[in-house]
Structures are given as structure tokens and as C-alpha cells.
Amino acid sequence: MAKKPVKQQESEYNEILRQAVAVINETRISIARQLNASENTAYWEIGKLLHERKLESKHGNAVVKRLSVDLKERFPDMGLSPRSLWDMKKFYERFSLSAPKVQQAVALLPWGHILLLMRFVAGDDDRALFYATECVSKGWPRDLLVNAVQMQMYEHAVLSNPANNFKKTLPENQVEFANETFRSSYNLGFLGVTDSLEEVELEKKLVEKVKQFLLELGKGFAFIGNQHVLEYNGKIRKVDMLFFNRQLRSLVAIDLKIGEFKPEYVGKMNFYLSLLDRLERGEDENRSIGIILCATKDSVEVELSLDGVDKPIGVADYQLLLPKAELQKVLTDEVRAFNAEQNRALPAVG
Fold this sequence. Notes:
Blueprint: H1 6-52, H2 57-74, H3 82-95, H4 100-107, H5 111-121, H6 125-138, H7 142-150, H8 153-159, H9 166-169, H10 172-181, E1 185-187, H11 199-208, H12 210-217, E2 221-232, E3 235-245, E4 250-256, H13 264-279, E5 289-294, H14 299-306, E6 313-319, H15 324-345
Parallel strand pairs: 1-6, 4-5, 5-6
Antiparallel strand pairs: 2-3, 3-4
Helix pairs in contact: 1-3, 4-6, 5-6, 5-7, 11-12
């Protein structure tokens, strides 16, 4: 029996490795979510108890303080301060009348995220669901949640139409999932960029922090490589970044642009996808998908540029975080304002 070529063996091994890493990462995320949900269930029930006992800050402060002392004696590692107990009551009151899908999404968040979410979204369940889902699926730390709200990511996501041609170029059973998988805007704040940069620098930073970029892209992505070589007809082309999405069973090519979207980018991506489908697409895989990632885009121009193109292509823009010092100030101001509000709500008992 003939041996497989070394290149094919290496390719098969890399696929096994990618899938194994994805399984372990997904398992770890699942465990973290379960831990958050269990802890938040306890907080929810305590909040419900305080609510049903009709304890308010004026006449219930002494009771809550005593309760805090007794609970901390039994559970010293849970952080059951009087302020935390009042937060649990607010938690229950804020979401007790919300739809089950909102409650379930919020319950998966770390407690610190929930406190910030309650401050940011007030009584708007749609915004709460959006930010909770993003935090869970992307693993956002609290500073990214703060920044996403400051940049009105929810408002941008709701108002923007899908900037792609997936409905015309993908099988019907893939269209909805593709639209859920790829978004019209991505937050690249984890790069910590504060100044202008060239495309090659943007690519280098994304490669250096590819794990965070995979979280931002969403579930099921495996990184294949950057400047991926496609050689055909004696000529060489290079794809900026190449991924594989396990759910879509498709190669995903990303072309990075530091400026605004231009119609000619579509023709270039269309050519790359033709090469990928011809040279690297597996027999059991769906057609390759292209994403053009630009600093800005005009929706009308994107729509016209994609008209008549037979390869599945989407156009997305990206947002960068505030400079680190400014972001830290935003987060510090939010926390200080929240603490001041809590202190006003808990008058001293003489």
C-alpha cells in the first residue's frame, strides 16, 4: 500500500490538531459558563428573598448588615457584603420580569459583568440580551463591555443591514447561519491600537493575538495562516488571513484594508475564492466564503459592488478601542459613579 505524501499527512494532522484544540476550548468555556450560572442562581434566590421580604435601604439596612456578617462567617469566599446583597436584590428585580432568553443569557455572565450591565442598559431587555450574548460568545472582559456600550455597538448592529450577498450565493440552509456567523462590524479593541497603522501592521497584530481574534469572529473558527499562498498558472497570490469554519464547513478568506471600502476589492476577493475552491476546497466542504474587513464602508456602495457577483462575499468594518489611558478613565469613572450611587442608597444607621 502506497504511503501518503508527507504534505498530505501533515495537513491531516493539522486538521486533527485544530479540531482537538477547538473541543478543549469549547469545553473550558462551557465549564466557566456552568460555574457562573450556578453562582448567579444563588445570587438570584437571595435577591428574590430580600425582595419578597420587602427590605428597603431605609428600614432594612440593619437586617442586611447582620445577614451579611452571618453569611460571611459561613461562606467567607463568596463576597457577601451588604452592598453585594443589595445588588442581588436589584439583580432579581431588574430581570425577574424579563423573557426567559434574557434571563438565561445574563445568568451565564460573571457577576461583575452583570453589575455593569444593569447600570448600562437600565430597563432595555433588547440591549441587555445583545450585550450579554456578545460577552458570552466572545469572552469579553469588563473593559470591552464598557467600550462596546460607549461605542453604541448595539445601535450600530440593529441599524445596519447585512453587507453581503449570501442569500444569492449560498444554499438556503446555509444563509441564516452565515448571517449569524458573520457580522457587519467587528471590535478589534484587543489590539490596543492608539495610532494609525499600515495593513501589514494590522495583519501582524491580528496574527500575534489570533486567539482573541478568533473569539471576536465567533464560534467554530480555526486559524490556518496568514499570507496564505495560492499558486496557479505560474503565478502566486496571497490571502491575508485564512480560516476554516467548522459549522459552515467552509474556508473563510479575510482581506484586510485600513481605509474605506472600494468596489475593486470585491473583484480581488472573488478571484481568491475561485482559487481556494479550485485548489484547496475539500470534497465534503462547502464553497469558500470571503470577508473584506475595512475601516469604514458605505452600505449602498457595498450593495452595488456585490450585485451580480456569484461568490459568497461579505464586507465588514472594524472598530478600535479608545486609547488605553482614556479607556481606563472611562472604566474608572463608571465604577466610581456606580459606587457613589450605591453609597447614596445605603444611609448609615445611627
